Amino acid sequence: MFNKEHIEYYSNGNIKIRGRYKGRMRVGKWIQYYRNGIMECECCFNNDEPNGVSFNYYENGQIEDEINYKNGVNDGKKVGMG
């Protein structure tokens, strides 16, 4: 099994997505960014499924909402922040 960091970039050189694979599955924290470099969302993965709290952000950096996942399933708890 390989454990590899994954990074995708926008054409302007800013990071678009950053995370880690274990084998072919996403694991740990994955972060997606807007083209301007501000964080768009962050989510933790376990065996390629979202697990734990996921945050979505507005382009100005403020939290839009948070969603709780358990074993890849939205557990119904979504909290809007803005």
Determine the oligomeric state from the structure.
Answer: single chain
Number of helices: 0
Number of domains: 1
| Uncertain runs | none
Order of helices and strands: EEEEEEEE
Biggest sheet character: 8 strands, antiparallel
- Rounded mean pLDDT is 92
Helix content: under 10%
Which secondary-structure class do the elements indicate? mainly beta
Provide the gyration radius in Å. Answer: 13 Å
Instruction: Note the beta-strand portion.
Output: over 45%
Quantity of strands, as a count: 8
Specify the CATH architecture: Single Sheet
Span from first to last CA?
Answer: 41 Å
The level-1 CATH class:
Mainly Beta
Per CATH, the superfamily is Histone H3 K4-specific methyltransferase SET7/9 N-terminal domain
The 3D shape can be described as flat
CATH topology category name: Histone H3 K4-specific methyltransferase SET7/9 N-terminal domain
Question: What distinguishing features does this structure have?
Answer:
Histone H3 K4-specific methyltransferase SET7/9 N-terminal domain; eight-stranded antiparallel beta sheet; mainly beta; 82 residues; flat; 68% strand
Architecture blueprint of SSEs:
Elements: E1 3-9, E2 15-22, E3 25-33, E4 39-46, E5 49-50, E6 52-57, E7 63-70, E8 73-80
